[in-house]
Structures are given as structure tokens and as C-alpha cells.
């Protein structure tokens, strides 16, 4: 394996290296650990790598390793950089014939995610995304029980991921992890949404076996002057009409890493908590509550996939590192079979792949640039600005000046300026969807936004047909609601 990122000061790089060592299947042979050559060298030397396999850039590592004989070069790269340095090294690695493991979120944009997925398929290469929590044995057991019909038809899913580490403006203190995660230039458009919300969404889909088909999200910035969201609440719809709730927050003061999920069906429910990962609660209509425990000795209780993920007998706790290692183990076993031109065991294929990465990028919003309120009626605190139509169409300097004059936070000003820059119309949005792997299955245009009932006391009203024509609908629509799903998704 060759690692990109993960040098001195990295949290996740050390986790990946610990995980690959558990099963003896993977050896760290090379690395480009930092964009700073000195840091890269020191990081590699501290890991006892030979100097000639320590690289100052991911470009030099990939190109040099590709020139080596197959028996000596790395087999795959693991990318553990901040979000903005995911796409380019992954693309270059795939182009040079290397399999790829990549941290979430998959890429910066949906287009990048789709490009990597297509490239991996064209090159017949493995592409793994490290959604860690699917690696826990009892998460796999929960998935198996749902798939076997133990709960009946799924009705409701609750998934919650509260953290409290960003309850204060930690990014202003020089904290490296907080700084890049709250900076849109390095993290992307999503803060808590991209950092932990994607984990929660993946876990809900992984256990239930159902794809999310529609979302309605409340995305907030609660710490003053922060640039990216730190608190989200999302209503979910799944393929079988099950509904769900996803909450992810990094300002839940006092919380550590308290991921939890509850799934309810017609015949019972399951609950799993990351703080108690070796226990799974199974409740039923007419049976006592069961507490299922992990352990390699429970051969008559646990499913094959859960047993495959257990390393120790019951009573010997396994946790986060082991869950990470299970993803690497399945990836490595599949890769070894691929290199040997053998058919991999189906259990080995149980690791998050490019499809999971692409899904993580299909949370998107519709910036209503030409609409009467340009989005500011929902985010501005000023009583005047939130009711003043079309003022976002003023020249950019004047628009920005008004926002600041009326006391809007810097994060609000930044977000609204980005909305203005998109100049996205309803027609161009629909065209963008048509060019993607999504299809719009339902859409509604409103003359009076449903949200105005609460904010302005106005009753919602659908856009009349005589206004639902090109150009006019852009200027009179105050809300566009659509449901989009993948074109190849089962109905």
C-alpha cells in the first residue's frame, strides 16, 4: 500500500495504519504523507520506510511506483487527505492502474464522484470508500437480520450522530482538524453534513438495504462567523416508502462521538450504539427483548458476515480500529483474489464502494437566484431584508453592502453571495439533473412558499399554470420542491 496524506499531526492517517496491521494482509510500502517535503520525509522515516519510497508529492509517488516492476510496486493507494485533495490523487492513481481506498466524503463535487466511479469501472479497478461504521460486526448482524425479514417491512429509521467538539469556534485557535473541516476551500460545501452526516446516511442505507429517495433538510450554522454548517436535521424517504430522521450535529455540547441508529419494521426493531458497539438490541411484538453480543464463538447466533468481522471470543471488546480493519480486510481479500484472477468470496465484497461514495454527494440544494427572494428570506435575520423581494439582483457590491449594513453574519453573507454567483434558473437546474445519473420523479413550483405560512402568515399557493412558462416562472417562483432519484434505482 502507498499512503497519500496522513503524516505528522494527522488523526485519521494513524487510524488507517493501525487498521491495516491487524490482519497481516497489507504492508505500508510507500507514502506521500504531506505536501510539505520535510514533514513528508520525517513522517515516512518515523514509520521506518526506506527514503526512496518516501515521496514529496502524490504525483511523484504514483508515477514512480507505476514505473516499478509489478512484483515491487504498490498494489493500491490509500488517500487520507483533507477533502479538497481527494479527486486528483484518486484520478491519477486509477489512470496509472492502481486500486484506490479513499476517505469520505468521496470527492468535492458530484461530477468528480461520477468521474471516479466511471474511471474505476473502465479500468476494472477496485475503489473503496471508508465508511467505517459498516465494519462493526453487529452492524453487519443488524443488516443480515433486516435482509432475512426479522423485522418485516421497514417502516421507520432514526439515525443520530451528535458530537460536541465544535461547540466553540475552535477553528480560530489554530486547531488543524477544526480549521480545514470548517473551511469551504478545503472541506467543500458541507461541514457537519459532509463530515458526519454522510456516515449517518450510509449507515441507514447499509443496515436497511434501502436507498434514500428524498430529503427535506434544515441545515444551520450556530457558532457565530463559522463558514460551514455545524448542525443538520433531515427528514428522509426511502424506496419502500419508509420514512426516517437523520440528525447530525457538531455543536451538541458535551457529546463525544455518539452515533446511534434505530430501525423499526412491522414485526420488531433493532438498535445499535457506537458507544456500545458489541451489543445489538432486538425488540419484537410478542417476545422478550434480546441483547445480541459479538464474539467469534457465537457460531449458531451470528450471521456469516458478522462472524467474519469478529476477531475475538465474546467478552473481548472490539471497537473502532477493528471496524476500520474489517473494511481493509475485505478490500484486501477481494484485491488478492482479483490479482490472482480468482472469484472473491461474496462476504469479502462487503465494503463501501464507489456507488456509496457517489450517493454521499447527492445531497444538494437549489440556489434560487432569479426567484423573488434569492434565498435570503430563509436565512436573513433582518426583518426588512427577509421581506424585500429582488434586492439580490442589485449589483454585487451594493448587494453585499446591504447585507453587511443590516447586520447579517459573515457566514450568511458568504452563502448568499455564492447563491448569487450560481445564477441558476429552474430550467438550468432541470437540465443539470437530466445530464446526471438522476431523474426528477416529482416537482412542484410555489407562488407562495410553504415556509411563508410560519414566517409571514401567508398560505402556500402553487404557481398558476399561466406563470409556469420559461422566464416568468423563474421570477415568480418562491420555492421549487423536487424529488430526484437515480435512473437505475429500483422503484
From TrEMBL:
Domain of life: Eukaryota
Single Gene Ontology MF annotation: nucleotide binding
SUPFAM superfamilies: Glyceraldehyde-3-phosphate dehydrogenase-like, C-terminal domain, NAD(P)-binding Rossmann-fold domains
A matching Pfam family: GFO_IDH_MocA
Domain Gfo/Idh/MocA-like oxidoreductase N-terminal positions: 65-131
InterPro entries: Gfo/Idh/MocA-like_OxRdtase_N, Gfo/Idh/MocA_oxidoreduct, GFO_IDH_MocA-like_dom, NAD(P)-bd_dom_sf
UniProt domain GFO/IDH/MocA-like oxidoreductase: residue ranges: 140-271
Family affiliation: Belongs to the Gfo/Idh/MocA family.
Protein name: Oxidoreductase
Organism for this UniProt entry: Potamilus streckersoni
Amino acid at each position: 500500500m502507498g499512503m497519500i496524506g496522513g503524516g505528522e499531526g494527522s488523526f485519521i492517517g494513524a487510524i488507517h495504519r493501525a487498521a491495516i496491521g491487524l490482519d497481516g494482509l497489507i504492508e505500508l510500502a510507500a507514502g506521500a504523507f504531506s505536501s510539505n517535503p520535510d514533514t513528508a520525509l520525517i513522517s515516512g522515516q518515523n514509520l521506518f520506510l526506506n527514503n526512496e519510497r518516501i515521496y514529496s508529492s502524490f504525483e511523484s509517488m504514483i508515477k514512480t511506483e507505476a514505473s516499478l516492476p509489478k512484483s515491487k510496486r504498490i498494489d493500491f493507494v490509500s488517500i487520507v487527505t483533507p477533502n479538497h485533495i481527494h479527486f486528483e490523487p484518486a484520478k491519477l492513481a486509477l489512470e496509472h492502474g492502481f486500486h484506490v481506498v479513499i476517505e469520505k466524503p468521496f470527492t468535492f463535487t458530484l461530477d468528480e464522484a461520477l468521474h471516479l466511479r466511471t474511471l474505476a469501472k473502465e479500468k476494472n479497478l477496485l475503489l473503496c470508500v471508508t465508511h467505517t461504521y459498516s465494519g462493526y460486526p453487529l452492524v453487519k448482524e443488524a443488516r443480515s437480520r433486516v435482509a432475512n425479514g426479522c423485522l418485516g417491512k421497514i417502516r421507520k429509521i432514526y439515525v443520530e450522530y451528535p458530537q460536541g467538539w465544535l461547540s466553540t469556534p475552535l477553528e480560530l485557535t489554530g486547531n488543524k482538524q477544526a480549521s480545514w473541516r470548517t473551511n469551504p476551500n478545503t472541506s467543500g460545501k458541507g461541514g457537519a453534513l459532509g463530515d458526519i452526516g454522510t456516515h449517518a446516511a450510509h449507515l441507514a442505507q447499509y443496515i436497511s438495504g434501502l436507498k434514500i429517495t428524498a430529503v427535506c433538510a434544515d441545515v444551520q450554522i450556530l457558532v457565530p462567523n463559522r463558514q460551514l454548517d455545524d448542525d443538520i436535521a433531515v427528514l428522509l424517504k426511502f424506496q419502500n416508502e419508509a420514512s426516517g430522521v437523520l440528525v447530525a450535529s457538531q455543536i451538541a455540547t458535551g457529546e463525544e462521538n455518539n452515533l446511534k441508529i434505530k430501525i423499526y419494521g412491522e414485526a420488531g426493531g433493532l438498535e445499535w450504539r457506537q458507544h456500545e458497539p458489541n451489543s445489538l438490541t432486538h425488540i419484537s411484538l410478542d417476545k422478550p427483548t434480546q441483547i445480541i453480543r459479538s464474539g467469534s464463538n457465537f457460531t449458531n447466533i451470528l450471521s456469516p458476515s458478522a462472524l467474519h468481522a469478529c476477531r475475538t471470543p465474546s467478552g473481548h471488546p472490539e471497537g473502532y480500529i477493528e471496524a476500520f480493519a474489517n473494511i481493509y480486510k475485505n478490500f484486501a481479500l477481494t484485491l488478492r483474489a482479483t490479482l490472482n484472477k480468482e472469484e472473491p468470496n461474496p462476504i469479502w465484497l462487503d465494503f463501501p464502494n464507489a456507488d456509496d461514495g457517489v450517493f454521499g454527494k447527492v445531497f444538494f440544494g437549489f440556489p434560487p437566484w432569479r426567484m423573488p427572494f434569492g434565498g435570503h428570506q430563509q436565512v436573513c435575520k433582518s426583518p426588512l431584508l427577509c421581506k424585500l423581494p429582488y434586492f439580490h439582483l442589485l449589483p454585487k457590491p451594493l448587494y453585499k453592502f446591504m447585507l453587511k449594513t443590516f447586520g447579517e453574519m459573515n457566514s450568511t453573507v458568504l452563502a448568499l453571495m455564492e447563491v448569487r454567483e450560481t445564477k441558476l434558473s429552474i430550467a438550468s437546474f432541470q437540465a443539470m439533473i437530466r445530464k446526471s445519473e438522476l431523474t426528477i420523479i416529482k416537482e412542484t413550483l410555489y407562488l407562495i412558499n410553504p415556509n411563508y405560512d410560519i414566517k409571514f402568515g401567508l398560505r402556500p399557493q402553487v404557481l398558476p399554470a399561466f406563470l409556469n412558462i420559461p422566464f416568468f416562472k423563474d421570477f415568480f417562483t418562491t420555492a421549487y420542491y423536487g424529488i430526484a432519484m437515480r435512473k437505475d434505482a429500483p422503484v
